[in-house]
Amino acid sequence: MANFKREINAEDLWKNILDEAQLVANEFELLSDFYRRNILQHSSFQQALAHVLAEKLTDDPSQTQAWQALLLEVMDAEPCIYQAALDDLLCQLQSNASIKDNYTPLLYFGGYQALQCYRFSHFFWHQKKSALALFIQGRMVSLFGVDIHPAAVIGKGIFMDHAVAIVIGETAIVEDDVTLFQSVTLGGTGKGMGDRHPKVRKGAFIGAGTQVFGNIEIGENAKVAGGTVVVKSVAANTTVIGSVARPLTPRL
Question: In what order do the strands lie in the sheet with 199-200?
């Protein structure tokens, strides 16, 4: 990420979100119901997150409460899902200079919302509830233009900015603190079976429009410039550029 770093007090985060949402609801009558439904009526970040995603996932408004209850049940069973969602939010708030408040990613960032939907689909996939997992994946594609296979493994503190047209395949691994911009593909090589997708290590940065193919590794803290095609592993702490990736030679 860029050098921008905003200080966020995680302990006061939910209170600050409530205060900010109340100000907006008071100022804009047209938005008051939206902010009430998605933030102000909830007693915790978990409840608000579950409601925001429930409204996105359901194709029948009468089922919103049922979806919210299901997502809350999952977060109770797997607290790591909530913690990852919080870490993703903190990453956005700390690193995205365009954000001026504490609620924007939760309410408005498709990349953030799609990533949290993935986390639930991943849970259901491993619970052998593939119908739920694939339904959520399909909704992600329709709503956000993001296609993440439920079996992919994604860490926390992920900065998935803009996110439209991101594709992450079944056997891909994305470790903690990774940045992915729009139109990134972590794709296979056409093999039908086996471990065939990229492994993106901690702290790596992958720019917009980058295509990474095969069971190769983007090393820890590596940077891949936008528009690059990567078919060979990239070493840790290395920057690669070009239509076909090549090492960047530092200027003396």
Answer: 153-154, 173-174, 199-200, 217-218
User: What letter represents residue 169's amino acid?
Assistant: G
62 C-beta neighbours (distance < 10 Å), count: 7
Which helix (H) or strand (E) element contains residue 236? none
pLDDT tens-digit profile of 71-83? 999 999 999 999 9
CB 72 within 8 A of CB 52: no
Closest residue by Cα to residue 166 from 118, 222, 218, 129: 118
Pair 170, 149: CB distance under 8 Å: yes
Q: What is the pLDDT of residue 189?
A: 84
- DSSP 8-state code for residue 151: T
pLDDT for res 242: 83
| Token code pair at residue 56 | 């996105």
Question: What does pTM read for this prediction?
Answer: 0.93
d(CA 3, CA 21) in angstroms, rounded, equals 28
